[in-house]
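Incident review: delayed structure delivery

Summary: a single-chain prediction request sat in the queue longer than the usual turnaround. Root cause was a stuck worker, restarted by the on-call engineer. No data loss occurred. The affected request and its eventual output are reproduced below so the record is complete for anyone auditing the incident later.

Affected input:
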Amino acid sequence: MFMRSPPRIEFLCDEADKGVISEPTPAKGYMPDWFRKLPPITQSEVSSASSGLTVKRCMPFLDALTTGWILPLAASVRLEIRDGGTHVDAGWDFDKVMVSNHGMHQVAGNPFEPRPPCKFHNYWTITTPPGWSCLFVPPLNRPDSIVEVLAGVVDTDTYQSLINFPFIAKAPDGVYKLERGHPLVQVIPFRRDATHIEGSVRVETSREKDLRLKILRQTQVTEGWYRQEARAKR
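Output delivered after worker restart:
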């Protein structure tokens, strides 16, 4: 019996860039330092009204951190933000363009105005199997205080070329440096046909209600919610 190979995403670069620009890494390899240092249970909280469990035991949070790949900044970039954010000058430690500008008319009326739209240049071509696209988002649960990368979807099975990433420099006026390897975007591959799902809005059935309450109760017990409530009422 033959086993079907799993879908594969590939990151391709120019031969001259291999070993020079930062390489994409599975998202689980880019865990924030504060998250790595956080214990699953905070002992100082165990004796208090809290269960002591930290976000390290929260699977939805962890799954968001580890889904897909992190595409890092290819080379170090310096951003000088001036005049209340209305001007952004960039420099970089690389022999290829790392930052350029978008026209203001392309995003007229956006909530970041009057800050100008810019874009990071990426030197990895991303390819996926037929029927697969990629969602590009700012690294999940890794907020960036300097730039806001804008999300987008690309059909990487047919558009197999370089993708640049629009961003807004949102920090206060000053000079900032984003180091080579800085997490730039999170790449989440998905099958396009898997998104073709119809929806409905209705009142839940009694069976659905019972299931919801059962799951909620199990979650509360696991997280120590009842113990917290009991102590609070003493």
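Verification: Helices lie at 33-37, 43-46, 59-66, 206-222, 225-232.
Action items: add queue-age alerting; document worker restart procedure.
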